[in-house]
Request: fold
Amino acid sequence: MFNFKFNSISDAIFMQSSNGQYHGLYVWSVVLIVLLSISITFLVYKVQIKNIGKKIK
Reply:
């Protein structure tokens, strides 16, 4: 279904498209931003749930 084969690490980082443009750095920066924002959100809500749990007791 998917073909995720890269010949080298630089191919995975730079991801050259068929028209010769390199878009990998943009893709990886977006992936990093999304993962960081999701993890920060979960950490914030974990702390808030813990504080609410303390108030209930």
In short: The chain has a mean pLDDT of 89. The CA atoms of residues 24 and 30 lie 10 Å apart.
